[in-house]
Amino acid sequence: MSGGLTLVVALPLLAALILILLSRLERRKGAIAGPGFFQRNGVAVGLYLAVAVGFWAFFIIVLPQLAMVDLSFRPKLPPSQMGGPKDIFTLENYRYFLFGSTTSTANWNWLHIKAFFLSIGVSILITLLNLAICYPLAFHMAQSAPVARLRVLLLLLIIPYWVNEILRAFAFRVLLSSGGVVNKLLMGGGLLDAPIDFLGNDVGLYMGLSYAYLLMMIFPLYNAIESLDRNQIEAARDLGAPWWHIHAFVVMPHAKPGIASGCTLVFMLSAGALAAPLVLGGPRTLWFTPIVYDRFYQAFNWPQGAAYALILLFACIVFVLAVLRMFRLSLGEIAR
Amino acid sequence: MAAAVELEGVNVTFGDFVAVRDANLTIEPGEFFSFLGPSGCGKTTLLRTISAFIEPTRGTVRIGGRDMKGIGPNKRPTALIFQNLALFPMMTVAENIGYGLRVRGVPRHERDEKVKNLLIQIALPEHGHKLVSELSGGQRQRVAIARALAVEPSVLLLDEPLSALDLKLRQHMRAELRAIQKRVGITFIYITHDQGEALTMSDRIAVMNAGVIEQVGNGRSVYAEPRTPFVASFVGENNAIRGRITQAANGTATLDTPIGPLTGRNPVGLPAGDEALIFVRPEALKLGGDPPSGFEGEALDVTYEGSITHVTMRVRTGQKITLSLGGGAAGILPQPGDMLKVGFEPQDGLLLARPERS
Amino acid sequence: MREGIVQRFSFAVYLGLFFLYLLGPLAVMAVSAFNTPDYPQVWPFEGFTLDWFGKLLSDGDMMYGLRTSLWIGVLVVLVSVPIGLAGAIVMTQIPVRARATYYLVVVSPVLTPGVIIGISTVVFWREFTTLTGMKFMYDGIVMTVLGQASFISAYCMLIILARLQRFDRSQEEAALDLGASYPQVFLHVLLPFLKPALFSAAVLAFLSSFENYNTTTFSILADKTLTTVLAGRVRQGTTPAISALAVFIVAVTVAGALVYEVMKRREDGRIRRRQQVAAKAEEAEFSGTPEPAAAE
Questions:
Q1: If you measure CA to CA, which chain A residue comes closest to B13?
Q2: What is chain C's mean pLDDT, rounded?
Q3: How many domains does chain C divide into?
Q4: Residues of B (48-77) whose Cβ lies below 8 Å from A
Q5: Count of alpha carbons within 13 Å of C205, Cβ hemisphere only?
Q6: C267 at B interface, C-beta within 8 A
Q7: C156 found inside a domain
Q8: Which of A65, C11, C254, C280 has a C-alpha 20 to 30 A away from that of C273?
Q9: C293 in A contact zone (CB under 8 Å)
Q10: What is the pLDDT averaged over residues C58-79?
Q11: Of the ranges A126-135, A175-184, B80-89, which one carries the lowest mean pLDDT score?
């Protein structure tokens, strides 16, 4: 295993070194103008910048991710055998995800595969649902709300924003459980004879997820629409454009980065949600993240857990790339 | 006494772009020196080279006789007043002015004393505790000057500091700057694209174009004796007419132009046969009479301004020529559409070689 | 005109439903915190009680978790704000061609699911600390701070970057020109300019750290924070003590938001007053009597 780690540490450091040397070379050739890094910041500040960013980029971001990739391709071994002859690259963890066995490929691992695609599919639906719920309010706040009302609205939005994810899920549990408020009201009103099992059939989970990440959608949307010049809408209206036309061809194209960034965030958070499935999921609930969690802390199979995490990460990357493609945006435009 | 600032073969290039080409110049102590040129001519680059924000690609900058190579902006005896003033918004007026002293480790009481004096000098004694955002444009201007003067630089560099002010205040500040310079007696190096500013304030002016210092001299010589076509047309209004020299002798020459032969001074001694330009100031052109050089054209536009009347006329080639008629000279003002006959004396025409690039 | 009324009415309904959806569950939960039954319920309201808050305070695990969470929050602020600041400054200086790559690297944690960040952090540091003999570093709190710092630093960077992009570099040059050293320029000019953004970043970093669950649950190892204790409690069974905790957190948030709002209004007022003073000075200048400057 130590061999893997050396590789993991050495590769990015080498890449960075080569980049620095290249820029040195270019500077010497005069292709880069202006003062050098330390000349511009002074030695003390320059050192702080280099160390802080270097530590962050390498030790907190890149190296852990690479270590996880490395681990996902290794067999589960007791510590004594790590780095030994049995510590070789293998696809068995990924094989397990697909076939439920590290060696056989006879049967598909439907439980995990289904959970994975269900998580992804439901997350996409939740993303679209939240976009639809939030867009009108975001537009109203950004374009037509008077200042005083805007402040109140923002305040009302910010408060639930900082309530913990677990507590938000818990609130839904209070609301939807068989002895919860909704069931009691429905039964008390004579509409039901027996409580509906919202949690057992995953309605609670999906609602909770949509609820939990509602605000991740509204703020990017609001920021993007706010920068649209109101005159553009007025002009379109003067030209006789119907309201849906204005939204589809004036507001939405302008708000593209906000829509993309809200969608990316909601999708990522919901596909990677752990608290809501734990709190709101029924015994038969399928969600991918808790399965990843169990690989680590129930099965104690870290390599397998790393592989599962990577599969999830891969799905998120594909989603981000798809959104970028669809909206023809660069990453810099959505991550703000 | 060593020169205040000396530039020796200074070149500044950014990649392929030459911002300053072979600048050689000596600025004397106590001088009010201006760099005049259109935007992008390299004057700001040159100023930033003197204050060490840009290192010259080649050449030497000397301040007070000392080579400044490798000496950073915080170690040079210069102070720069930025175009946008660059006052520190999070500091009070007094803290702004005292900043240079603070980083030099001047003790607080000494610093306070000096700041107080400077505040009195700039007529803002009651404003020390205010934030910069509470001042008017003119007041900010003075604070910027006081902040630069507080560190007692041997050279004060000013990068178009008046450009943000409106006209009336700008004219007031011209006089004030000149007065301050006289009082403190240090070298001022002033950057501007406004010839009026340069002419009214400076002891000497360097006219720059496309990275090259084209001419150095006092205001009068730059205006009256331009040595390049650029200087002739950039400093003051001027009419330029192209042609070929037919004869040249005794410091004058006659140019064959599409609107007839025109005679003027030939200070550089261009020989017959050369392509050349003849420059005639609008105020040198006279209506009617029978001067040695003359041409005809149609009046297009007549603007009466009391003491002066501006006339734009179109000659046969379609070129537009402007005239400034003194109030006394014009008995009857021309009307648009009139055919005019104008002329000038040989000493008012100036022949210069045509620049190759045009 | 009729269309306008219909539109307005339907929008009002939408707005009402939206906030009912957003705040309703929290309100219901809040009410249940004051109701006597053991199970969080709103209706029937059997009697007002504050017992659940008392239960909360006497819950040793919860209090321990709270202390750990606060401690981690402070450490994350101390790590993430300086890193975010450095990250933002480097972003403005890095050569254009390297910028996209750099941006991708440092912003990627924002778009990565929290569980994955937690997993990768422990995976890497478990090996790294073993290999380098720094096993004492492999600790729940340290791991959590490192894991959370990856994306919280990115938040901080984005906040600081937004303000940094409005920074006028000539101010740095002015300070240098007046004789300041590079560290002095940084301390006297850049930091004061960035102060509001640094403050916002610190608040955001603390709150994000405090409420984080996904990353923390992996990186906390054997230790516990408020959120991990809470998750355990919620899974075991539902008690109104959890509602009480929520009420408490909402109350703190509301108070914080209100304080922020008041501070912002005051600051706005101050800026407006300064502008008025400046406008008055400007007027005096134009009225044709500029104060005589060179009083000799």
A1: A33
A2: 87
A3: 2
A4: 55
A5: 37
A6: no
A7: yes
A8: C254
A9: no
A10: 93
A11: A175-184
Interchain proximity C282–B51, CB inside 8 Å: no
Neighbours of chain A (3+ CB pairs under 8 A): B, C
Helix B167-184, helix B137-150: angle, nearest 10: 20
**Amino acid, res. A228:** L
Structure confidence at residue A190 (pLDDT): 78
- CATH assignment at residue B275: 2.40.50.140
Q: With an 8 Å Cβ cutoff, are B84 and C170 in contact?
A: yes
Contact assessment for residue B188 and residue B33, using Cβ atoms and an 8 Å cutoff: yes
Asked whether the beta carbons of residue C168 and residue B90 sit closer than 8 angstroms, the reply is no
ipTM tops 0.90: no
Q: Which residue stretches of A140-213 are H helix?
A: 147-161, 165-176, 181-188, 203-212
Contacts A35 to B, Cβ<8 Å: 55
In this structure, the answer to whether residues B258 and B125 fall within a common structural domain is no
Count of CB atoms within 10 A of residue A277's CB? 24
The minimal CB distance from A67 to the residues C83, C112, C120 is found for C120
Q: Does C158 touch chain A (CB under 8 A)?
A: yes
**C178 plus C166 within the same structural domain:** yes
Measured between beta carbons, which residues in chain B are less than 8 angstroms from residue C177? 51, 53, 73-74, 78-80
Q: What is the pLDDT, as a whole number, of residue B331?
A: 65
The answer to the question of residue B358 being in a domain is no
Residues C22 and C126 in one domain: no
Task: Quote the Cα angle for C94-C167-C269, to 5°.
Answer: 150
Count the neighbouring beta carbons within 10 Å of the beta carbon of residue C194.
19
- When pLDDT is averaged across residues A320-324 and rounded to a whole number, the result is 89
Residue of B74, B83, B122 to mutate when probing chain C, most C C-beta within 10 A: B74
Q: Are residues C83 and C225 in the same domain?
A: yes
Q: Can you give the pTM of this predicted structure?
A: 0.85
Contacts of C170 in chain B (CB under 8 A): 82-84, 86
3-state secondary structure C265-281: HHHHHHHHHHHHHHHHH
B175-227: pLDDT as tens digits: 888 988 998 899 999 999 998 889 989 999 999 999 999 999 999 999 988 99
B14 and chain A: CB distance < 8 Å anywhere?
Answer: yes
Q: Which residues on chain C are in Cβ contact (under 8 Å) with A273?
A: 214
In a domain, C292, yes or no: no
**Can you give the residue range of the structural domain that contains B316?**
237-353
B274: which residues sit within 8 A by CB, 6+ positions away?
Answer: B244, B245, B353
Cis peptide before C44 (omega within 30 of 0): yes
**Residue C290, in any domain of the structure:** no
- Residue B302's region, left for phi above 0, alpha for psi from -120 to 50, else beta, is beta
Q: Which residue of A has its CA nearest to B71?
A: A39
Distance from CA of B231 to the nearest CA of C (A): 31
Give the range of the structural domain holding residue C27, as residue numbers without chain letter.
Answer: 11-49+241-283
State whether C103 and C199 are in the same domain. Answer: yes
If one counts the domains in chain B, the total is 2
CATH classification at residue B207 = 3.40.50.300
Chains in contact with C, counting 3 or more C-beta pairs less than 8 Å apart as contact:
A, B
Are the beta carbons of A31 and B14 separated by less than 8 Å? no
Residues B28 and B176 in one domain: yes
Q: Judge contact between C19 and A214, C-beta under 8 A.
A: no
| C291 belongs to a structural domain | no
Residue of B nearest to C193 (CA): B90
Q: What is the pLDDT of residue B358?
A: 45
Assign residue C124 the CATH number of its domain: 1.10.3720.10
Please give, rounded to a whole number of angstroms, the shortest distance from the CA of C53 to a CA of chain A.
Answer: 16
Q: How many Cα atoms sit within 13 Å of A216 on the Cβ side?
A: 26
